[in-house]
Design brief:
GO biological process, one term: canonical glycolysis
Strand content: 5-15%
CATH topology of the largest domain: Rossmann fold
Structural class: mainly alpha
Catalytic activity: beta-D-fructose 6-phosphate + ATP = beta-D-fructose 1,6-bisphosphate + ADP + H(+)
Number of domains: 2
Pfam family, one: PFK
Helix content: 40-55%
Pathway: Carbohydrate degradation; glycolysis; D-glyceraldehyde 3-phosphate and glycerone phosphate from D-glucose: step 3/4
Strand order of the largest sheet: 1-2
Number of helices: 8
Cofactor: Mg(2+)
Order of helices and strands: HHHEHHEHHH
Number of strands: 2
CATH class of the largest domain: Alpha Beta
Length: about 180
């Protein structure tokens, strides 16, 4: 469950093996879960996450996400040494454990349905989101907070009659024009 799993710990942190990841490539979405996590935006939440990682001997993270996830990863990485010092000071871990886990390595992968990251043809999640959209019909609101890429390509792919995207807001009177077009 993303950062929420790191903060909550317990059964949220599991070792992945061949059986747990086989036969999932064709599935849309994520089988490892995803959740926004207010607690991780606080130092106290990141301290709990650090404690849970150290308990499992995890010092390598692969973070797949958008701006919030990758910003969170960068903050977590920059605070790591201080978080371990605080855990030692509070008696939650020993100095030896802190030394063994003194380095946090993070790989960040852009996972955004918005497909708004330069330097890549398509971000992780865009294709499966587009396929899911194609299964729906008529009036549809798709994801993409400030980016109309997914709406645009799904509209093109499905032959949509009308499309709204943030990059090109409708002009005044669009309602009458749309009703006229639908009437035709």
């Amino acid at each position: 469950q993303g950062y929420e799993g790191l903060v909550e710990g317990g059964d949220n942190i599991k070792q992945a093996n061949w059986l747990s990841v086989s036969n999932i490539i064709q599935l849309g979405g994520t089988v490892i879960g995803s959740a926004r996590c207010k607690a991780f935006t606080t130092r106290a939440g990141r301290l709990r996450a650090a404690r849970n990682l150290v308990e499992h001997g995890i010092t390598n993270l692969c973070v797949i996400g958008g701006d919030g996830s990758l910003t969170g990863a960068d903050i977590f990485r920059s605070e790591w040494a201080g978080l371990l010092e605080e855990l030692v000071r509070d008696g939650q871990i020993s100095e030896e454990v802190a030394r063994k886990n003194c380095r946090l390595n993070i790989v960040g992968l852009v996972g955004s349905i918005d497909n708004d990251f330069c330097g890549t043809d398509m971000t992780i999640g865009t294709d499966s989101a587009l396929h899911r959209i194609m299964e729906r019909t008529f009036v549809l609101e798709v994801m993409g907070r400030h980016c109309g890429y997914l709406a645009l390509v799904s509209g093109l792919a499905s032959g949509a009659d009308w499309l709204f995207i943030p990059e090109s807001p409708p002009e005044d009177g669009w309602e009458d024009l749309m009703c006229e077009r639908l009437g035709e």
